[in-house]
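Consider one such protein record:
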Amino acid sequence: MPFPLGTARVAGDSMRPYLYDGDWVVIRRGRRKHGRRARVGDVVVVRRPDRPELVVVKRVAEVRADGRLWLIGDNPAASDDSRVFGAVPPAAVEGRVVWRYKPLRRT
């Protein structure tokens, strides 16, 4: 069984002011096996459905009746999110952000 925690580097400004370009975060991997299902307000790491080679960090804005997730960036003007690629299936979720560890402080 792979270790349930991982790390990811944030690229871009789509999640400002919560996360900044260059921030490093700890993610709890897994969809349900090592944690709960995604809920509204969670920040998740997902594979873009239209570009599966690209992994993005977004906030869950809605969990639809069919289980698909509507994702948004905290900075909509700088975010390609569900408004561009639509709702994503739960299987696209790589993990949930649980902690920003770098940088330790903002100046």
